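Re: [ENG-882] Designed sequences occasionally contain unexpected residues at chain ends

Forwarding the minimal case from QA. Structure tokens:
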């Protein structure tokens, strides 16, 4: 009499299980890579680190759930299966968006020409505040960084303005996208009631936010645009002084776009084009995809940018 042993068939994991494993890995590993590998994440606005930590927690909880159900086989209707696949695709799309939000970190470059250590720098939760030493400042600049660029990247290029007696507040914008809180400059202005003359400014997308803020707030006296232009016409905005500084080799805010913005800005707006300068020269964060090749050294271009900035900010008088 022979006895045959029945061996249970090997458990085959459904494709949806492996898709879940992929989602778990993405939710845990990508945020940890950003948190631990890019210092700009923790130095910026707290919203991005909070989202990344939340993603890690969700991924870990999902991993525990997968482990508990590793031997269970559930039959799903076609509709539920389609919904489950759609949910996992959405999770991967969310992780891809987090990767895109990984900010350009500050890269120390040539110190702006003529700058000397006369400023105190305070790294606050949602802003970097630079105060001139000596007499109290009466003029101030609130600056919106470019998209996905950390606030610290503009400290060196704006420091000569602080040395000239201007209070400078560089905003840490939510997710490093200024359009998510275009009114953020108001909080900085309220926090410094000693300032009687305010300018708002910004680089690239940050300049768009600064322009919109200046258009709707009559207590703003100046608008400083770095490689940027407004979305709406500002021709009827009275009492606003405007300076637009751009680069001749900018591949993003191209000379053509800057020239077209003349019709949107007040008729007395001033324009300065840095010959050989490109988009990334308006901060210290390294090269940027889509930008043009510079025809001049970063230190030379930034020397021109800071000189024009200081002359503009110190020459503005309150309305």
């Amino acid at each position: 009499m022979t006895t045959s042993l029945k061996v249970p068939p090997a458990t085959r994991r459904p494709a949806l299980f492996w898709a879940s494993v992929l989602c778990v890995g993405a939710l845990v590993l990508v945020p940890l890579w950003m948190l631990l590998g890019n210092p700009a994440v923790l130095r910026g606005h707290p919203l991005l680190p909070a989202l990344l930590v939340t993603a890690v927690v969700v991924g870990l909880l999902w991993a525990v759930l997968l482990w508990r159900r590793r031997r269970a086989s559930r039959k799903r209707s076609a509709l539920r299966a389609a919904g489950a696949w759609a949910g996992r695709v959405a999770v991967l799309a969310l992780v891809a968006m987090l990767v895109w939000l990984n900010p350009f970190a500050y890269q120390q470059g040539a110190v702006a020409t003529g700058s000397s250590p006369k400023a105190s720098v305070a790294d606050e939760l949602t802003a970097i505040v630079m105060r001139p030493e000596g007499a109290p400042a009466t003029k101030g600049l609130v600056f919106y960084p470019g998209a996905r660029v950390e606030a610290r990247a503009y400290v060196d290029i704006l420091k000569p303005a602080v040395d000239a007696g201007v209070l400078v507040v560089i905003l840490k914008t939510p997710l490093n996208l200024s359009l998510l809180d275009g009114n953020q400059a108001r909080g900085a202005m309220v926090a410094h009631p000693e300032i009687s003359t305010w300018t708002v400014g910004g680089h690239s997308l940050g300049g768009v936010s600064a322009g919109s803020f200046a258009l709707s707030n009559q207590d703003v006296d100046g608008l400083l645009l770095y490689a940027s232009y407004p979305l709406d016409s500002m021709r009827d905005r009275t009492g606003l002084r405007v300076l637009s500084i751009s680069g001749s080799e900018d591949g993003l805010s191209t000379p053509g776009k800057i020239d077209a913005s003349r019709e949107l800005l007040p008729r007395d707006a001033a324009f300065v084009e840095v010959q050989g300068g490109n988009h990334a020269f308006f901060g210290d964060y390294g090269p940027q995809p889509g930008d043009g090749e510079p025809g001049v050294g970063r230190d030379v271009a930034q020397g021109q940018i800071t000189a024009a900035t200081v002359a503009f900010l110190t020459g503005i008088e309150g309305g």
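QA comment: On inspection the terminal residues look reasonable. The chain is about 40% helix and 15% strand. Proposing we downgrade this to a documentation issue.
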